[in-house]
């Protein structure tokens, strides 16, 4: 492999400068401001600011609403990750077996990823709407009265389905690429030895997909923590009775609706710390079981 050698020390830094500038302006600086603001108590207009230390953090962990939001986020994240990755793997296996129409099939499955989260949320809100939605109409036919505006379990199902549908396309692309990278000779040899389709998948295909699965697990956890705000806002707005009020949406509620900027900043810091911690745990322990 040919190695690139720069003639001076200045050129590499100049090439990195645009990315470093973007990272500092749009990531490091806002994160630093959030950490700073989490130790303050100020009014909505910034005219009165007082340093309160860890008071905002102590108030959060004494709040039943915040602890409920934390539990809701855990349930929501696990459900979305399992559902979206499971369906994506199933679709990728189906696409990998198709010969002539694989490109058309792949293109159709990738399209939902281009849909904005808010648009995806509105679409599923219409589908599950108790008055005009097609799915509640079908469920009423079998004796189930669907109403996500009143029933917390229905609301959770709605946001999980909407968030999973939005993420399936992304997972599908990586699973399909991972499947196509597996040598066909391995599965053919197993078939010759008498292994059936399911045994070939669980003993050969799935273990070789471990790096892809691990990567998507990390990505999906981060997705559920940060990128699902638009879906929650367009479907349930955290209701009913805080049943779908995940952490990222509570940050918005306390900061932009209730104008409690110190508490909102503290929640942002906690959320950032949770994501960083979970990512480190995944790379520290789960990655050990991954064979590259």
Describe the structure.
By secondary structure, this protein is mainly alpha-helical. It has one domain (58-291): MetI-like (MetI-like fold, Orthogonal Bundle), CATH 1.10.3720.10. It is built from 13 helices and two strands, in the order H-E-E-H-H-H-H-H-H-H-H-H-H-H-H. It has a two-stranded antiparallel ribbon. The model has no long low-confidence stretch (mean pLDDT 87).
TL;DR of this structure?
Part of the ABC transporter complex UgpBAEC involved in sn-glycerol-3-phosphate (G3P) import. Probably responsible for the translocation of the substrate across the membrane. The chain has 292 residues and is mostly helical.
Topology:
Layout: H1 10-37, E1 40-42, E2 49-51, H2 55-61, H3 64-97, H4 102-110, H5 117-127, H6 134-141, H7 152-181, H8 184-192, H9 197-208, H10 210-226, H11 229-235, H12 247-257, H13 261-284
Antiparallel strand pairs: 1-2
Helix pairs in contact: 1-13, 2-13, 3-7, 3-10, 5-7, 5-11, 7-10, 8-9, 10-13, 12-13
């Amino acid at each position: 492999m040919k190695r690139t050698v720069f003639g001076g020390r200045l050129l590499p830094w100049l090439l990195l400068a645009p990315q470093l500038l973007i990272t500092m302006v749009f990531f490091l600086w806002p994160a630093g401001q959030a950490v700073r603001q989490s130790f303050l108590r100020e009014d909505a207009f910034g005219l009165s600011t007082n340093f309160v230390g860890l008071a905002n953090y102590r108030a959060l962990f004494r709040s039943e609403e915040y602890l409920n939001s934390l539990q809701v986020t855990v349930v929501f994240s696990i459900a979305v990750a399992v559902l979206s990755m499971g369906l994506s793997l199933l679709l990728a296996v189906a696409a990998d077996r198709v010969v002539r129409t694989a490109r058309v099939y792949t293109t159709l499955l990738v399209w939902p990823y281009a849909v904005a989260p808010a648009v995806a949320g509105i679409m599923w809100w219409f589908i599950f709407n108790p008055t005009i939605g097609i799915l509640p109409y079908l469920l009423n036919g079998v004796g189930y009265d669907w109403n996500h505006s009143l029933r917390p379990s229905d609301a959770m199902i709605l946001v999980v389905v909407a968030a999973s549908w939005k993420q399936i396309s992304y997972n599908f692309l990586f699973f399909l690429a991972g499947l196509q990278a597996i040598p066909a000779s391995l599965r053919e040899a197993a078939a010759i030895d008498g292994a059936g389709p399911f045994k070939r998948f669980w003993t050969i295909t799935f273990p070789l997909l471990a790096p892809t699965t691990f990567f998507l697990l990390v990505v999906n956890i981060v997705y559920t923590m940060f990128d699902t705000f638009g879906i929650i806002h367009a479907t349930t707005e955290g209701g009913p009775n805080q049943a779908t009020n995940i952490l990222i949406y509570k940050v918005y509620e306390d900061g932009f609706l209730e104008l409690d900027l110190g508490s909102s900043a503290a929640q942002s810091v906690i959320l950032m710390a949770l994501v960083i911690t979970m990512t480190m745990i995944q790379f520290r322990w789960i990655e050990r079981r991954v064979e590259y």
